[in-house]
Design brief:
The chain is about 40% helix and about 20% strand. It has about 375 residues and is of the alpha/beta class.
Length: about 375
């Protein structure tokens, strides 16, 4: 990547790609593609597109109604629709001299550190060659255990994996308001958010459109992930004329979220947000203070309890006796071995050559994320 080029992840939801009947709208897609190409013309920006729409495209192709189909039928619709979606993108970008690439991901792809790095390297290679990566959740195989839940969450993690400078979440509302603008005529648009506080989170409502699954709440959650990694975030209305070009030119359209001034390292960002914990380790007050105040590693004497059936190298949550989450880390012992060591120590045995249970370099604390 040229030092003058920056990376923008653009997430577009189903509601921004479909018509009033919930069918894929080529007109809307063409408008989106045109903007993505236009914003790259002067060479300042590279673009990664996170696109919903596979299930909607499949339903339209098959003539099925969303309200009357089972989960396997939704996944079948996604299998049909993803082909339609990508064929349409390929044709629309191709008219403008651009090539595209498809990446279908599940949460397990980004939870695994090696796969996370492979995805990052692939995205980087595509961008260097002028190819637009188009990313979607792999709905045909994703079940609850490996789902992102919605493409807002996927977009937040894509901002990490692509090492983006800006994340743009396009929706059918102008941005974050002081109240629900559909219900309160006095609601006003918040043009800039310096920090995502509890009061900002409280402004986010539930699911919005009948087509997409992500409401403002999921967008705020995605923004939290991105700003912690030093990524600027914009929530804007996809129907605003030339919205992406204007955002690329730093015009204040929608709601802008300032990135954290203390950018957390990529490895720690991955650890904080990508993998689901395999278990938990309860620590005593002394250990908690050592972690929080002295940047120490977690040692065996500070462990009170072990929950779960994790292996060596598994991701664990670190919690206090009263249930407060201190952070997450990568365990150097399996749960079985750790329980045995804890029990032997409680029985009074002196243990030698026991290294750190969680090394400081393999740990991220909640306080770090908050800062």
């Amino acid at each position: 990547m040229s030092k003058h080029q920056r990376r923008m992840v653009v997430k577009v939801g189903s509601s921004s790609l479909t018509d009033a009947m919930g069918r894929l709208s080529e007109q809307k897609m063409d408008r989106l593609v045109g903007q993505i190409v236009d914003m790259q013309q002067d060479g300042r920006w590279q673009a990664v597109l996170v696109s919903s729409g596979a299930i909607a495209a499949g339903l339209g192709q098959l003539g099925w109604q969303r309200a009357h189909i089972s989960m396997p039928e939704k996944q079948a619709a996604a299998a049909v629709g993803q082909t339609v979606l990508m064929e349409t993108y390929e044709r629309l970008f191709g008219r403008r001299g651009r090539s595209v690439a498809q990446l279908l991901l599940t949460r397990s792809d980004v939870e695994d550190r090696k796969r996370f790095i492979h995805i990052r390297n692939t995205v980087g290679a595509l961008l260097r060659h002028g190819i637009v990566p188009i990313i979607n959740e792999n709905d045909t195989v994703a079940v609850d255990e490996i789902r992102f839940g919605d493409n807002d969450a996927l977009a937040g993690l894509t901002a990490l994996v692509s090492e983006a400078d800006r994340l743009v979440l396009l929706t059918d509302i102008d941005g974050l308001y002081t109240a629900n603008p559909r219900m309160n005529p006095d609601a006003t648009l918040i043009s800039e958010v310096a920090a995502i506080t509890e009061s900002i989170e409280a402004l986010a409502g539930g699911p919005g459109s009948s087509v997409g699954t992500g409401g403002m709440r999921t967008k705020i959650e995605a923004a939290k992930v991105a700003v912690q990694a030093g990524v600027e975030v914009v929530i804007a209305n996809g129907e605003v004329p030339d919205v992406l070009v204007r955002i690329a030119n730093d015009e204040r359209v929608g709601t802008w979220f300032r990135p954290s001034p203390e950018r957390m390292g990529m490895r720690k960002m991955w650890l904080m947000h990508a993998p689901k914990p395999d278990g938990s380790i309860t620590i005593d007050e002394g250990a908690a203070q050592a972690l929080l105040q002295s940047s120490s590693s977690l040692l065996l004497p500070g462990i009170v309890d072990v929950v779960g059936d994790f292996h060596e190298g598994g991701v664990v949550t670190l919690i206090t006796r009263d249930g407060q989450i201190v952070g997450k880390g990568i365990a150097n012992y399996s749960a079985r071995d750790l329980v045995e060591l804890v029990n032997r120590r409680k029985a009074g045995e002196t243990l030698y050559n026991v290294h750190e249970v969680v090394h400081r370099n393999d740990m991220v604390l909640v306080e770090e994320a908050a800062r």
